[in-house]
Amino acid sequence: MDNLISLVNKLQRACTALGDHGEESALPTLWDSLPAIAVVGGQSSGKSSVLESIVGKDFLPRGSGIVTRRPLVLQLHKIDEGREYAEFLHLSRKRFTDFAAVRKEISDETDRETGRSKQVSSVPIHLSIYSPNVVNLTLIDLPGLTKVAVEGQPESIVQDIENMVRSYIEKPNCIILAISPANQDLATSDAIKISREVDPKGERTFGVLTKIDLMDKGTDAVDILEGKAYRLQFPWIGVVNRSQADINKSVDMIAARRREREYFANSPEYKHLAQRMGSEHLGKMLSKHLETVIKSRIPGIQSLINKTIAELEAELSRLGKPIAADAGGKLYMIMEICRIFDQIYKEHIDGIRPGGDKIYNVFDNQLPAALKRLQFDKHLSVENVRKLITEADGYQPHLIAPEQGYRRLIESSLVTIRGPAEAAVDAELVHKSVNETAELRQYPTLRVEVGNAACESLDRMREESKKATLKLVDMECSYLTIDFFRKLPQDIEKGGNPTHSVFDRYNDPYLRRIGTTVLSYVNMVCASLRNSIPKSIVYCQVRESKRSLLDHFFTELGKKEQKQLASLLDEDPAVMERRAALAKRLELYRSAQAEIDAVAWSK
């Protein structure tokens, strides 16, 4: 069972080292779930003397006013033999064998945190004492409750101390050790008053009565010790501390314990209770009870740890990786984020993610619809055909067929295809990809830079795609498909009458046939372009954007200095602080998980 107390000791030390003091914060706390015994009492209640009696050593600071200004987590470790020694968590490599030096270090460490202003702090001091004269036990010594502020203290200190004490003892895992002096009315006991508020049934409270030997003659504390004056679930325990004269004379603790036993055994009022009185019995009883409570809480602590680890890992994953310190690490980090973005962009185009279908829609719907809207039949009306053919003939009418007129009609029709042919991949996919790259959300500047670089790259590819696509149209304009005309039925008329005016040289039926022939040819070219334009766009833009969307950005990135790279990774400082705090807390919980697993396997 001793290893259970040792387990909680390790977890408490880990909590303090990693900043978990059980205070209210945005982070999950392990400290609050650990069973602990909090020592509560008013000033001059004998609280320090009780602790020193349990330990068997003088080691606590003494003086007037508020001496204990920070919680002291006192972890007692029973050793089989050897010299007694103490260790502080904040001085992990230093071993104290002089307990006067321990007292001084407690005072000095308190001042380091609070200054010499007599302020209080909730950050605990961890002290471990190893001795053959102690039981395995952990106690938290809290500042003594007070009613008035002394000189040098703020008026709020009375409430500050009460709030700190309450923050410990109101937790259901806290065992309350309420210290009350027997030479004062129990109804005025600060410890009993605050304990009753948080534990009205007395289910977590152990009552300790001090200064029994200093009661007025003719009075005793039997009713209290027997639970008649104020009943708790656990029996009251009386102790007799060393007197101030004993302390001044440095009376040995072992001798003081012996005198305490003799006092209860020889006092007519208390000898029937002697077996459960005294600081030795108090230490053993608290150790046994703490072991029992820890054993009952271990499954719940394990469940809490596993649940919290999963939550912390999920939030850390959402926040992303921390920024690398060196230039190479920053460059690698930016490249990795860009590769993730690039992969998401490719997935949109390839149909793994939604959006690529819009490209197909351009080819299958928008381009054909745009070609249909050109209305070639109006362009090839009789009047327009007559106008273009007569203009093409010039001063000398054609002899057989209006070849130049045909060419002009075809070229003027095909030129109008240039507009619809400029269809290209929309930059919307870039913006969708930027928004879906979680890593880019961490760094606003990098997000803007990557988005701009991708859009600029896509613009360059779009221009190349337009050029290639327009070349296809220009090719059709520059060379007509002769076979198409050879397959047409031969015209029995040989053309117009050259004796007629240039404005009525051709009759309407003949001009309509020319218009129909040109329209058939233009429709054939449109059908061909409808197949070749998508191929050109895919080759020049879609394929190229999948292959080298951020190549230019990567080239420029390689030229940047560390300061410039750092400016791209301008993460919100609050996010950085949150990540660091979460990582620290995750380290605590993983350590706790390993410690608990080690105890479980050892059994």
From TrEMBL:
PROSITE patterns: G_DYNAMIN_1, G_DYNAMIN_2, GED. Residues 31-299 form the Dynamin-type G domain. InterPro entries: Dynamin, Dynamin_GTPase, Dynamin_GTPase_CS, Dynamin_N, Dynamin_stalk, G_DYNAMIN_dom, GED, GED_dom. The keyword Nucleotide-binding applies. One of its GO terms (cellular component) is microtubule. Keywords: Cytoplasm, GTP-binding, Hydrolase, Microtubule, Motor protein, Nucleotide-binding. One of its GO terms (molecular function) is GTPase activity. Residues 511-603 form the GED domain. It is found in: Cytoplasm, Cytoskeleton, Phragmoplast. Pfam families: Dynamin_M, Dynamin_N, GED. Signal peptide: none annotated. It comes from the Eukaryota. Belongs to the TRAFAC class dynamin-like GTPase superfamily. Dynamin/Fzo/YdjA family. This is Dynamin-related protein 5A-like isoform X2. It comes from Nelumbo nucifera (Sacred lotus). The gene is LOC104604798.
